[in-house]
Specification:
209 residues; alpha+beta; four-stranded mixed β-sheet; 4 strands
Length: 209
Amino acid sequence: MPEYKLMYFPIRGRGQAIRLLMLDQGVEFQESTIAFKEWPTLKATLAFGQCPVFYVDGETLVQSNTILRYLGKQCGLYGSNDLEAAYIDMLNDGVEDAYSRYLKMIYNDYENGKDDYVTKVLPTWLASFEKWLATKADGKAFLMGEKISYVDYNFFQYLDAQQILSSTCLDNLPLIKAYYERMAARPKLSEFLKSETNTKRNVNGNGKQ
């Protein structure tokens, strides 16, 4: 397998799903932290001026979902045919849409927009995923059924952030709640989630969560 290195801010953010996937799949990687004061200089050297940054044998990738898809292919987490791969991408696009709404509130309208997000926006997105889960293995496994895929790590990190924002947000969603608990109980994920490395990191760069 290639030599991997993840470079990201000292937060969970958009680096979290990448970390979770590699840790759970036993992929060896190095991680280095970008100090916020160093970011303007590094930003100027990157495609689209974005991070996380992911190095594959020294080659540079940015865009978190591109990195997830790459790792999905490398780790056999991209379905067994083109249609399954398309469904996985569809689900990940749904997670991205939901996560983008969350980040918009966190960074642009936390004080005034949190209540509306928690009571109106978030339940709508979660209900869609609850309905989807019911169609796959009776909601007792992963987003695509019996086999885990790269989108499960992205969805899990999204759910983790939402529960920090609103600890009761899954109470009326039995399939998603059970799904979250299953993912969190996976041995390598459980160990990491409880680690000081993870618990000391803020969810978002502005400290709001």
